[in-house]
Design goal:
single chain, about 190 residues, three-stranded antiparallel beta sheet, 7 helices
Length: about 190
């Protein structure tokens, strides 16, 4: 499904990133194999999806799929149950908008998500030190890291495409073009 508000260049880049993630998702699950996710992990994915702006249930499910490189495909019912739990904990709130329930992060939800990001940053620093040690021993494989980073990138692009204003979309397009050029320069290195 293509977003008509999305500039064609940005849409092409976004589609390319999604295809790359999809083609290289070995080890992340397959399309035929459902990936079991702990309720807490799904709740965190929901919060992350809402970080880019208000979304209805279908948009949350789609954002989780994109962020995971389409390895996570939670059902609407599963996400709805976890949303109920997040509502009870006051991490999200909802309102009816044009006959659809729309969800958004509360201040508590944003704070919870920030604490998760801090925990992730500290564990990434530890992983980076381990990776440096492994790289020196010749045992490092960065395939999973680049796929994870690509999924985060695709989620950020998706957030801007869905919720950004015209100026934000233009700036994002310029940034994506710049990143693309830099990636091709890396690829061209000997």
């Amino acid at each position: 499904m293509q977003n008509p508000q999305l500039p064609s260049e940005l849409r092409d880049i976004f589609d390319s990133v999604k295809q790359m993630i999809s083609n290289n998702s070995t080890g992340f699950g397959t399309k035929d194999t459902p990936v079991k996710v702990a309720p807490e992990a799904l709740q965190n994915s929901i919060l992350a999806a809402l970080a880019s702006g208000d979304k209805n249930l279908a948009q949350i499910v789609r954002a989780i799929g994109v962020a995971s490189g389409k390895t996570l495909k939670p059902s609407d019912g599963t996400v709805s149950l976890e949303l109920d739990s997040l509502l009870e904990r006051s991490l999200v709130e909802s309102e009816l908008f044009e006959d659809r329930k729309v969800f958004r992060l509360t201040e508590s939800g944003s704070a919870h998500l920030a604490s998760l990001d801090q925990a992730t940053d500290s564990s990434e620093n530890e992983a980076s030190e381990t990776e440096t040690t492994q790289r020196h021993s010749g045992a490092s494989d960065c395939s999973n890291n680049i796929l994870t980073a690509s999924a985060k990138f695709a989620n950020a692009v998706s957030g801007i495409a869905q919720s950004g204003d015209r100026n934000q979309k233009m700036r994002a397009t310029e940034l994506v073009d710049e990143v693309t050029r830099k990636l091709y320069k890396i690829l061209a290195e000997d």
